[in-house]
Automatic annotation (TrEMBL):
Region named Disordered: 329-356
Organism domain of life: Eukaryota
SUPFAM superfamilies, A to Z: Ankyrin repeat, TPR-like
PANTHER family: ANKYRIN REPEAT FAMILY PROTEIN (PTHR46224)
Xref: InterPro entries: Ankyrin_rpt, Ankyrin_rpt-contain_sf, Cul2-RING_E3_ligase_SR, TPR-like_helical_dom_sf, TPR_rpt
Annotated protein name in UniProt: Ankyrin
Positions of ANK repeats: 182-217
Keywords: ANK repeat, TPR repeat
Organism: Triparma columacea
Residue spans of the TPR repeats: 387-420
């Protein structure tokens, strides 16, 4: 019976601990200091101080009460903890261990504060006070989490302008400006953020260290490409003005000017027009024979066309030229893919089977994806969980019709776990919704290469090729998908439409 009693006592103690843990963290999240004190009161005695009792509590993800308080901008609770540390004269090593304690992902309380926008009931003006309080407790700015991100990364990506300003006043923040996380430097994070304050944050980061303007992420991409691909005009404009290289070329001969023109980024083009390399980029012809001005005209971005033509010395009578470019874009006659300069052939699986046309940018995209997977190495469980969380955020934005914002989250997921083709597929869908098939095509190629048996890849590739007027190649991609799933009506529709359009093109050419 005594053994049973001991077991019952242990079970009761565990139940009490779970109840106290829940009460403590809920109180901390709700900025309820009396609730926190009540939750830990049974654990405080002559041998255990209030601070020591607090440090004993961690949830299943290794988060402490300070993590919860910081995450929820609980000003009163943070002040209470600071006063406890001072009143109980906590040793420096014990204080530092608690204040800079990491959860299972390596996230510290300071990072929790910097990665979250304020709850509805908390005024944004609380941020400077909270941040200053944590820093006064020796919260570390350069300390990285498991993915390599620091507090400055999170503040930059969350659009917390005040936090970035305050963090940059600390000498210790200087070393973090070049810190490379899975998704790049703090400038990369800010450059991919759709937050209204993102341009201001980019400006602050560039002022702190102009050399970060052309830093590469682990996929070899600079911040400007991140911003341009997301259609973030204000951010990209700041980057161009801050010294970002506008002469960089992507696969398929795509320049920054092509991306900006295709996304209607007038501010970015105006900033580029002030720089010689920017004006040269506006004259680049991609592998499909298209100029940035033609892409802009095809999307009916009149102001973009005007800016480009004036910058390249063709501004006189630009409205007439706009009409010509629009007509050229609308009625562009492409030769068959196998005869086009940018096309390559890939042998079919069976003897005598027709060879499928594969385009240069598709090949390059798959090669770069394989390098990214190899460079990443093992994808940890923590990375996978973070990637899934980013995907969920992207799905939410996509469902709300915010395709640029969704693409940013999917890009984040890709950087964490490049082995999962669903993230590329989702980002591809964003670009297609934005009518940016030049950006969608590489992602579609990766999806099919990563998971050939998944019809989503064939569908994405066929759709992107179709949007680019590569009708034979679109039909071939749809046909490959139908081999996997003969009854797929969407693929049948794409193939029939592609074949019809291809015949119309051939008829125009007299073939």
């Amino acid at each position: 019976m005594s053994g049973l009693k001991t077991g019952e006592q242990k079970q009761a103690a565990m139940s009490r601990d779970r109840s106290a843990l829940k009460s403590l963290f809920e109180s901390a999240s709700n900025n309820n200091v009396p609730g926190c004190m009540k939750a830990i009161h049974p654990y405080v005695n002559l041998e255990t101080s209030t601070f020591e009792a607090l440090t004993q509590f961690k949830d299943g993800r290794e988060r402490t009460v300070l993590h919860f308080a910081a995450q929820n901008w609980a000003k009163d609770v943070v002040v209470w903890i600071k006063e406890l540390i001072e009143q109980e004269k906590v040793k420096k090593e014990d204080k530092d261990r608690f204040v800079n304690g990491k959860d299972e992902k390596g996230i510290t309380p300071l990072m929790c504060l910097c990665m979250n926008l304020p709850p509805p009931s908390v005024p944004a003006t609380s941020l400077p006070f909270l941040l200053t309080t944590l820093l006064s407790l020796s919260a570390s700015i350069p300390l990285p989490c498991n993915s390599g991100a620091t507090s400055l990364h999170y503040a930059s990506g969350s659009g917390l302008l005040q936090a970035v300003q305050l963090l940059l006043t600390s000498p210790s923040s200087k070393s973090t400006l070049h810190s490379l996380s899975e998704a790049g430097t703090p400038l990369h994070w800010a450059s991919g953020s759709p937050h209204p304050d993102a341009p201001g944050i980019v400006k602050l980061l560039l002022e702190a260290d102009p050399d970060t303007a052309n830093a590469k992420d682990r996929n070899g991409l600079p911040p400007l490409i991140t911003a341009a691909a997301g259609g973030l005009d204000g951010v990209a404009s700041e980057l161009v003005g801050g010294g970002a290289d506008v002469g960089v070329l992507l696969g398929g001969g795509i320049s920054v000017a092509h991306i900006a023109a295709d996304n209607g980024m007038v501010g970015t083009l105006k900033a580029m027009a002030k720089i010689e390399t920017g004006r040269k980029a506006m004259m680049v012809v991609n592998d499909d024979g298209e100029t940035p001005a033609e892409l802009a005209a095809g999307q009916e971005y009149r102001e973009c066309v005007r800016v480009i033509l004036e910058a390249t010395g063709e501004g006189e009578g630009w409205e007439v030229k706009y009409g010509e470019l629009k007509a050229k874009s609308d009625g562009r006659v492409r030769s068959k893919p196998e005869e086009a300069e940018g096309g390559k052939k890939k042998k079919g699986g069976d003897e005598g089977e027709e060879e499928e046309v594969v385009w240069e940018e598709e090949v390059k995209a798959v090669e770069e994806w394989r390098k990214a997977v190899e460079s990443k190495g093992e994808v940890t469980d923590s990375d996978k969980e973070e990637a899934r969380a980013a995907k969920e955020m992207g799905n939410k934005e996509f469902g709300a019709g915010k395709y640029s914002e969704a693409a940013v989250h999917y890009t984040r997921a890709i950087s964490l776990d490049p082995t999962d083709p669903t993230y590329y597929s989702n980002r591809c869908a964003c670009y297609l919704k934005q009518k940016s098939p030049l950006l969608a095509l590489p992602d579609a190629a990766v999806v099919r290469a990563a998971r050939p048996e998944w019809n989503k890849g064939h569908h994405r590739l066929a759709t992107a090729r179709m949007a680019l007027g590569r009708y034979q190649a679109a039909a071939e991609a749809a046909w490959e998908g139908l081999k996997e799933e003969a009854g797929n009506q969407d693929l049948k529709d794409i193939m029939q439409k592609a074949v019809k359009k291809g015949r119309e093109e051939n008829k125009k050419m007299g073939k």
